[in-house]
Amino acid sequence: MAVFRNRFITQIFRSFADLIPMLTVILIFQFLVIKQPIPDVVNLITGTLFIVLGLTLFIQGLEQSLFPIGESMAQAFAQKGSLFWLLCFSFCLGFSTTIAEPALIAIASEAAKIAQNEGLLENSTTTVLQYALGLRITVALSVGLAILLGVLRIIYGWKLQHLIIYGYLAIIIITPFAPKHIIGIAYDTGGVTTSTITVPLVTALGIGLAKAIKGRNPVTDGFGLIAFASLTPIIFVMIYGMLL
Known about the structure:
Layout: H1 2-34, H2 41-80, H3 83-99, H4 102-117, H5 125-156, H6 160-174, H7 180-192, H8 198-212, H9 225-243
Helix pairs in contact: 1-2, 2-8, 3-5, 3-8, 4-5, 4-7, 5-8, 5-9, 6-9, 7-9
């Protein structure tokens, strides 16, 4: 218990230290550029304390649950020797952690509203909701496929840089043919997929798998899954826009 308390207190100070650069920038611009007092100091201080506490609890949760679970499940699948179930788990993990991502929900909803305002969709609430849901499912499917391909890369030792190059070549080729209104959305969805839940779980999966497979190095082979998760949504969303 004492060890946990000491680690928790240390993490609180680390979380606060991580926020210092951001707070410094805000204060400098507030007083030197805008030259106005902070509107609500009490709320700023209270909010900062909540952020510090939230970051601390989140990091503790990652270290005690998500990272160990991800690594242990990857190693268990590797020892079981069932490629089918490992790939199923990888795809489902990528899909499930992405479909409920708040940032993706927000972008999909905003994209649907803008498409409606531009006359690209029928003036119907149902149509807007269906478009947003279709966008979310498209991104989630692409992330699931990305994690699946990343796992295959670790198993078979494919070169990460080759797959990344092929992926960006595909983006370059598809972009000129994609509808103009979908291109920006597609590129943005590549960023929102790397969420606070997806990143630690997927990273732990890759590292655990690389540890369990002979001849694989966790440093060189365990990482790279997140790169796929950021790349494939761009391709899928542009194709989604072309098919509508």
